[in-house]
Amino acid sequence: MNGIKKGACLAAALLLAACETPKVTQEEMDSVNYGPAPVHWKQEIMSYLKLRLRDPANAVVDIKNEPKQMFQKQVGLDPQQHGWAVCVWVRDKMRFDRDQWGETYPMTVFIRNEKIVAVNNGPDSFGPVGLAYARQQCKELGAPLEK
Questions:
Q1: 69 in a structural domain
Q2: Residue 30 falls within a domain, yes or no?
């Protein structure tokens, strides 16, 4: 196998490994401080999205669950995250054609001390890793988005 093919295989393997969402142990869950359960979490999420959606007035935002404690392991360069997690399904105008609606996509929002501390697959951070995290985490939160 020549150098280019080896490099391509290595890159593909690293990308697939980065998309894997590793299992979290109860010990890891118990090792962090989640802070108090958020009170104004819906307003915080809507405020966050209002600044980032292409058509916030008409976008479809479906908050799928009450906040639940969640721990996300560090994977590769993605840092460890923890907090009160909420699964949100979003349908907004497309990035390159603002007259067309995109497909519904999941995002996971982590909240600590009434502030959003991390988002997987938010409107301003699309990518295969964030999408994989959001799909898996929404499933764990009881709101799988199957496509």
A1: yes
A2: yes
